[in-house]
Design brief:
By secondary structure, the protein is mainly alpha-helical. The chain has two domains: 4-78, 434 Repressor (Amino-terminal Domain) (Orthogonal Bundle); 83-122, no CATH class. Helix content is 61%, strand content 0%. It has eight helices and no strands. The protein has helices spanning 4-15, 20-27, 31-39, 47-57, 61-67, 73-78, 86-92, 96-114. The longest helix has 19 residues, at 96-114. It is globular and about 40 Å long.
Length: 130
């Protein structure tokens, strides 16, 4: 599913005929907090909030993680995890703030590349440039 966690939550909420106010109240969060999640301003709320939202929306917590792109449907189906990329390994060694900054730069590069005005794809780190 494309669109991320916020879109998934909004679509599920509306398919159940629920308002932001009712979902927020049932999940024990503020309506503005839910609005920020649905708009993508908050990309991945903490596990407690995700679990409450899953219960309120009658989905599994893992469904929210798949929608957020944290795990793949194959991982859920097969119980396997992909090998971490070199970028994942680097990110694991960073502080939370540095990881957030790296993610922001990566997203900007991806958006620019999708529009066709970004830099050409870089070779994998550590690969030989010819």
């Amino acid at each position: 599913m494309g669109g991320g966690l916020g879109q998934y939550i909004r679509q599920r909420r509306t398919s159940l005929g629920l308002t932001q106010e009712s979902v927020a109240e049932q999940a024990g969060i503020g309506r503005s907090h839910l609005s920020q999640i649905e708009s993508g301003k908050i990309g991945l709320p903490n596990a407690t909030i995700r679990r409450r939202l899953a219960k309120t929306l009658r989905v599994r917590h893992v469904d929210l993680l798949v929608a957020a792109g944290e795990i793949s449907e194959d991982e859920v189906r097969n119980g396997t995890a992909p090998e971490p990329s070199e970028l994942d390994e680097i990110a694991d060694r960073l502080t939370v703030d540095a990881r957030d900054a790296l993610l922001a730069v990566a997203r900007q590069l991806a958006r620019a590349h999708q529009r066709g005005n970004g830099p050409s794809p870089m070779p994998r780190l550590g690969s030989k440039i010819e």
